[in-house]
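Supplementary Note 3. Input sequence used for the single-chain structure prediction.
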Amino acid sequence: MKTSVNLIVLCFLVAACSQAVDSEYSSLDAARKENAIRTGLLPEWLPESSRQISVAYDVGTNEKIVSFHYKSAEGWDPQELCKKIDPFDPPKPKIARPWWPEDVPATQASTPQLTFFACENGGSFLATNLKSGQAYYWNTKI
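The predicted structure, written as discrete structure tokens, is reproduced below.
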């Protein structure tokens, strides 16, 4: 009986450690005021015009997914920070949210509409539509 109780408690602890927390920011300035960049919730290289920022962060695994819009006219070039990769190369994030598109990363059933990048030595990924200014960032390991 004691083993069963310990096993149940362990299951609850593991489940509690793998819970994603959601945050939203209207702008990059709002995210800065909430220390989202300083704490590592958001990458420090987001474009200055970033807005409508949505984040889901798994406190147990340190994994996160981020969606944001930016002004494409700003001239932000992800290739200054990240390496362009094949749309089918990045792994699928483990966190799922309704605002995260099913074709990020690209699937065999989709035609890639975004440009994909590996960032931070391949531990993080970025998918962006450079014309519309919509971007998705995720990491799979820290």
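Residues 20-139 form one domain. Residues 2-17 form the longest helix (16 residues).
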